[in-house]
Amino acid sequence: MTELAFSVAEKVIEKLGSLAYQEISLTWSIESDLKKLQDTMSTVQALLLDAEEKQAKNHQLSVWLERLKVVFHDAMDVLDEFECEDLRRQVVKAYGSTGSGSGSGRKVCCFFSSSNSLAFRNKMGHRVKGIRERLDLIAKDRDQFHLEMRLDDNRIVHRETHSFVRDRDVIGRADDKQKIIDLLMLPNDNDNIS
């Protein structure tokens, strides 16, 4: 089964809202760009449940959803790149630069490399802006489909279309979870788990 646009949007929004991304956006001075992306994604996501329910009867709606998923995946790629660069910076800060050589030639090379924070911020700022523009352009087409905003009222549809269930939506399984963890933690008894 293919991944639903709602699920992809939810992953991107959760990542954008995480504490790690709040720190990353401050580090790279792009908090306003990422906030705008998060706001646009949230607005579009509110329409996705209705769109996914109606797409079986409307081929154009299916195409629209696929276009959205491509942009959502591109957004996820950009966010992953921010995480990688942030980790790289932390490693360099903790252990020093791994580059060899010195002198002005090395400084010029370093300035134009991807490790230059100014060049990286500029490049990524343009990528985030491009994603936002693409998302805005695709989102404008939503009016032709007469979609309804659904925030929380259709959790049943959400559960029927895929197997993803948020932890906060599961009630009364804490004891079972603990029993499974305890069973898995028993030494050398893992061969008996069916």
Automatic annotation (TrEMBL):
Q: Which keywords label this protein?
A: ATP-binding, Nucleotide-binding, Plant defense, Repeat
Pfam families according to UniProt: Rx_N
Q: Where is the Disease resistance N-terminal domain?
A: 10-102
Recorded hits in InterPro entries, A to Z, give: Rx_N
Source domain of life is Eukaryota
- Which GO biological process annotations does it have? defense response
Report the GO molecular function annotations.
Answer: ATP binding
From the Swiss-Prot or TrEMBL record, give the protein name.
Disease resistance N-terminal domain-containing protein
Q: What is the lineage of its organism?
A: Eukaryota, Viridiplantae, Streptophyta, Embryophyta, Tracheophyta
